[in-house]
Structure formats: structure tokens, C-alpha cells
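Q: what sequence does this backbone want?
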């Protein structure tokens, strides 16, 4: 683990090193000998930093991570992109998807600096792969939620599915544990060259069928393939192809929501 300031990192089998990712020489010094580089540093949302600060940090740390991997000939780097690259999540005016389920061919139309920074992350990774012939994988994901987040949010979505916070990612989410597993899978993937995977939970934050949510709240958006039950409005084929699996953890498997009618993967 590399961080600019954290000094209390203590996980069995892991080590902490301090480095400033905006300083390539500092960053390179702690990455020598690595078999893979997983880059998660940066701002996870447009706030609280000023737009120029958030954009600069996210873009430059991603670029430096790729540059360090190239110089040190680290064979695999993995980077956090975001569903925000599509433009819907943080734009002041509501942005509609061009179609659902959203796949990797969907246009990137960011309307704010955070989503734009994630577009740069993806483009930078593709560029470095073309230049170095090494491998880089970017993971796109929506709202990352802990168990406590889900326990607080699911009842709110039931009361108001039109809440913009939930609508902006089409009621999608991913549990924090599945994010960790997805990055680990990306490190071990046999893929060569560049890869991009969309990782989203197997359902939505609502008990309402996804097709009903879409018809009520996004009636003008074309549905190009049937979405069964509560499946997400995202195409997860890229996760199967790049990572070998799709996320499996659902809020319905949490003890606080489990009922006799639930058959989704448990968190136990």
C-alpha cells in the first residue's frame, strides 16, 4: 500500500510505503520490483476539492501510475475509472443514457470535471498500452456502498425511487467487498493489452423490476435488450470477459433484508 500520509496501515502480509503520487520519482522508488500496480488514489467524487484540484490530482496520479508501470516494466496495472465517465452521475442537468442496458460502446459524454477526469484515465491507459505493449485494465463502477450504506439507502429508495442520487446511476451500486474482489481478479486476469470492465451489483437498490423503473423514470430511453427482473441496466459482459466473473453480492443477502423469498448470495 502506498499513500502520501497514512502511517497506521497494518494488514497481515502487506506493507505500507509513503510516497507522493504527484512526484513520479517518489512513486517509482516504492514500486520497484512489483508484479502489478493497482491505482486507487484520487478524489472519488467532484467534491470537496475545487474542480481544478480534483481534475489535476485524478488525471496526473493516473498518468504517473501508468508512467511508473511503463518505466519499471510492471506487467499489469489496474485503474479505477467510474460510471461517471458516461456523464450521468454528477451533471447539474439530468443526462439521459442513449440506451440501456449500457455497454462499453456507450458514448462517453461527461458534463463535469470528475467524469472528465475518468475519461482521461481510460484514454491514458489505452495510450500507454499502445506505446509499451504492457497490460492495463480499467474498472468502471457506480456507487460504492458498504453494508451500513445499503441498510440506510434501500428503505429511502423504496420511499422515493425518483431520488436523483439513486437515479443518476440507474439505481445501480456495488458492494465494497465486490470492488476488492474485482481489483484482485483484474490483477490475475490472463488478458493481454488493454481491458475495460464494468462492475455492477447483480441487482438494483429497488425491489421494483428494473423495466418498470425505467419505463416510469426514463420512458424516452430505448431498451435494446430485455432486462429481466431486478437485473441492473448495465451490460456486464465485459466483466465476464476481462475478469472471468461478475459481482455477486446483493443487498438482499444482508441479514437485515433476508427473507424466506430471497435467494441471492449471502454475505455470511
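A:
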Amino acid at each position: 500500500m502506498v499513500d502520501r500520509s497514512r502511517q497506521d496501515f497494518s494488514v497481515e502480509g502487506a506493507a505500507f510505503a509513503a510516497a507522493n503520487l504527484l512526484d513520479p520519482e517518489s512513486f517509482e522508488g516504492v514500486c520497484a520490483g512489483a508484479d502489478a500496480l493497482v491505482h486507487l488514489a484520487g478524489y472519488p467524487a467532484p467534491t470537496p476539492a475545487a474542480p481544478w484540484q480534483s481534475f489535476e490530482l485524478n488525471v496526473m496520479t493516473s498518468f504517473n501510475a501508468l508512467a511508473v508501470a511503463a518505466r519499471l516494466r510492471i506487467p499489469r496495472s489496474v485503474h479505477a475509472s467510474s460510471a461517471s465517465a458516461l456523464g450521468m452521475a454528477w451533471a447539474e442537468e439530468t443526462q439521459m443514457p442513449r440506451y440501456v442496458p449500457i455497454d462499453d460502446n456507450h458514448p462517453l459524454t461527461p458534463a463535469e470535471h470528475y467524469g472528465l477526469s475518468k475519461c482521461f484515465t481510460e484514454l491514458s491507459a489505452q495510450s500507454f498500452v499502445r506505446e509499451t505493449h504492457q497490460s492495463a485494465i480499467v474498472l468502471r463502477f457506480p456507487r460504492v456502498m458498504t453494508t451500513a450504506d445499503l441498510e440506510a439507502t434501500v428503505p429511502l429508495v423504496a420511499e422515493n425511487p425518483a431520488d436523483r442520487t439513486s437515479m443518476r446511476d440507474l439505481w445501480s451500486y456495488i458492494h465494497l467487498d465486490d470492488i476488492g474482489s474485482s481489483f484482485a481478479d483484474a490483477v490475475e486476469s490472463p488478458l493481454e493489452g488493454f481491458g475495460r470492465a464494468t462492475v455492477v451489483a447483480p441487482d438494483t437498490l429497488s425491489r421494483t423490476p428494473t423495466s418498470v423503473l425505467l419505463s416510469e423514470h426514463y420512458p424516452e430511453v430505448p431498451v435494446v435488450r430485455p432486462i429481466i427482473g431486478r437485473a441492473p441496466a448495465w451490460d456486464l459482459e465485459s466483466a465476464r470477459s476481462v475478469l472471468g466473473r461478475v459481482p455477486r453480492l446483493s443487498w438482499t443477502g444482508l441479514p437485515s433484508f433476508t427473507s424466506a423469498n430471497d435467494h441471492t448470495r449471502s454475505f455470511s
